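ugh finaly. both done.
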Amino acid sequence: MQACAIDTSSHAVSSQSSRTTVGGWVKAICRAMDAAGCDSRAALAEVGLELEALDGPEVRVPVEFSIRLWDLAVEVTQDPAFGVKAASYLKNTSFHALSYGVSSSSTLKEAFERSVRYSRWVTDAVTYQFVRRGREYYFVIEPVMEIPDVSVDCVVGVFLRMCRSLIGRQFSPLRIELRRPVPPQIADFNAIFRSPLRFNAPKNSMVFAADSIERPLAAGNPELAQANDIIALRYLANTEIRSLAIRLRELLTTRLADGEPSEEDFAQLLNMSVRTFQRKLVDSGTTYREVLDDTRRDLALSYLKASHYSVTTITYMLGYTATSSFTRAFRRWTGQSPTAWRAESRSGS
């Protein structure tokens, strides 16, 4: 299988997926596989990734690749608790500035709040809530797409390790609730979590006593935490800028058949002003017209390869009002008319 290419200039892995995760997650899965006696490089190659391409604080991997790797890891290790164990293979530097900011937090409450604030930089496939209810705090893990149970197990393990590194190795939550079904073997879950477990729960959550969450930490360093917040915020901003262009392409793909949308339409849809929408795209190195043009070109090539679409039909599918407008744009992209390009493409194949 051909490995997925990484664009080192934008620190993004090329893929059709719009949801991503940092390379540190994938590297932790690999280290856990190696520790279990499996060949992580072979597993990476099977899902289409290369280990050397995962280095760097802003390298991102489409979630679809990490999902395949999680599934493959469970398959080859035959370990239902693989995710719980994989959490121990995330290093202090896996999340770079966010890791250092969390380690410098003044309380566990602050550490969780910091993690939630910058969580979209780690991945946008999962969201978090951290709320107080009476004398308890709830940390809720909410995937926004289908991800393997094993990956949620790992997330719980990561945050539990965060707590123990800050407050003491014997620390445990009041209880842990998981949506997943009961695993075939729960001994490792009990041994590592050391907390009352509930499976088939409505939500994935960790529940803590308020006094333990609010207790001042000896290693707290507000100045150091703030310095790392600035770096983490930059990482997050860069990630969100890239995500906007990807989201725009997705929306264009579904809406062009209804006519060419305006910048105002998309700005309103994305809950931002037109000026903010334009600025964010410029910050990512593109403009609305460039994304629109690139999307139309890619769709045009795809539609022309499908023989059942006529050029007239494709014209309207791309939001053009006249075939002549589409033909002029296509000549600019390829130097050929749509009909000539289609004929040459069929001849070549």
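ok and the 2nd:
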Amino acid sequence: MHDTNTRENADVAPARQVADVVAERIERLIVDGVLKAGQSLPSERRLVEKLGVSRTALREGLKLLRARGIIETSHGRGSYVASLTGHTETSPLMHLLGSQPRTLYDLFEVRGMLEAESARLAALRGTPADHVLITRRYQEMIEAQETEADPSVHARLDHAFHLAICEASHNPVLVHTLQSLTDLLLSSVFASVNNLYHREQHKRVIDRQHARLYNAVIGKLPEQARKAAADHIDRVCASLREIEQEEQRLVRATLRLEGWS
């Protein structure tokens, strides 16, 4: 009886270990950004082939990931990567940050720090595949400027370009930190695009800075890429402050004209 139990335990242990390995390898794909939040997992057959494990071990590994809240499964859709950051935009802090205009400049400070470093790392570590993706996002952004009038579209394409550079840094923590701020960052990009892109002088400066950043990253020039990203954020922030002061002067002059002073 004892020998039978021992054999059973020996059979169970390796299967459990293989399931852990399966879970860890899929987690690595998620951390590295190969599988993104909301994206469906490949079919069981493809995962079995790619990971070199049995169907049973694969299913056990997926069960572990479901228990950790890393993947979800729904009828008709199969398994997909869960939202890893949760609904942060609904938290009181996210509401406060999003509702106060002064935090726009705080966000630009954060963008400046994160994006300058991610641009430097992207120039150092970017692969040919990264360059293809960055070029695609850059071209989409440029084409939209010629054909698309909606500022929100420009904002999303602008953000996608910067995110593609960040992903080329191959630093998953940096990427996930930026992604967790997506909604707040989009609001800052939208503010800059909405206020600056219809002003021809500012638009030309932004276009030149995007081109400088793109060329430095693709050209594998880390210090130039870092400086281009930092200068871009600084310039956008300074331009917005100029516009804000201009509008305040306009309001004050109008009030004086109407006899409020």
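summary for the 2nd one i guess: Residues 88-257 form a domain with the Four Helix Bundle (Hemerythrin (Met), subunit A) fold (CATH 1.20.120.530).
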